């Protein structure tokens, strides 16, 4: 076994361990930190596969921006844990069904028929003039252009949905109508009422 294979197995074990720690973490902030460690392991594996651009993109975009944003949002949100625990049993059967479906799909897709040692050849070594960015761009914008555009549309829908969920109408806020205030007249706003005071006999 070569040193590259040993490093690959170590990084893969670390990636699986941090992923399981993220799933079973009770604190949301700790789960985000475990996910960051998992991203570093995935980026290291990509570097072993000579995909330096993907590794740097993963660290800069996800670890440097998205995960930091998640961490700040989690710390700012006032999460009611009692409500989450009360609804856990309600959504548990549906969650188990979805998890079993995902596991079955992973076994079908990642089986030995598609990713076995007989099917997947060893990665070839490239020269110094090889650019994985050029190869990635050619594959992304030629072979996989329609899935790429579909992913962009799905991302746009997710952004719109997130804005819609966050942007709620506040019924407690009172808004001012400036034009109505400017055009107001005294006779429309003030009404003088003459009230006759009761006499002693009426009292």
From TrEMBL:
Listed EC numbers: 1.6.5.3
Give the record's keywords alphabetically.
Membrane, Oxidoreductase, Transmembrane, Transmembrane helix, Ubiquinone
- InterPro entries in alphabetical order: NADH_UbQ/plastoQ_OxRdtase_su6, Nuo/plastoQ_OxRdtase_6_NuoJ
TM spans (from-to): 6-24, 31-49, 55-74, 94-117, 144-166
One annotated GO molecular function: NADH dehydrogenase (ubiquinone) activity
Which PANTHER family does the entry link to? NADH-UBIQUINONE OXIDOREDUCTASE CHAIN 6 (PTHR33269:SF17)
Q: What is the protein name given in its UniProt record?
A: NADH-ubiquinone oxidoreductase chain J
